[in-house]
Amino acid sequence: MSNTILTTVGDHIKSIRKELGLNQETFAANAGISVSYLSEIENGHKNPRISILYQICSGNNISADDLLFGRKNNPSIIDMIYDNSDRLTLNDIDIINDYFKGIRPILLNRENQK
């Protein structure tokens, strides 16, 4: 990896970590790596093996696409539900279901007016 790529990936990791509201200690622990190693990756000083990138992704429930290419600015509702599906409760599912049942007639009406 070039230094530019290392810096970019490091910036993505740092940005995602902060977006998740995690400090380096928690994020690193989730990934099974040391805080100093995470810091070196975030600062573009280390070229992590694919196994480390996998640990970072799986340990912190983030996608490899987000890690390598940065988070999408406007993820779709489906992406957000999918990305958070392991945290959904039955109540959350009921709320989501009720929402889509309620909005369906509005969308049908909009389609019929076209």
Concise overview:
The protein has 114 residues and is mostly helical. It is 71% helix and 0% strand.
Q: How would you describe this protein?
A:
With 114 residues, the protein is an all-alpha fold. It contains 7 helices and no strands. The model has no long low-confidence stretch (mean pLDDT 90).
Note the total helix count: 7
Task: Quote the beta fraction.
Answer: under 5%
State the helical fraction.
over 70%
Biggest sheet record: none
C-alpha Rg (nearest Å): 19 Å
Mean pLDDT: 90
Layout of helices and strands:
Blueprint lengths: L2 H17 L4 H8 L3 H8 L7 H11 L3 H6 L7 H7 L6 H24 L1
Helix pairs in contact: 2-3, 2-4
Describe this protein with a few key phrases.
114 residues; mainly alpha; 7 helices
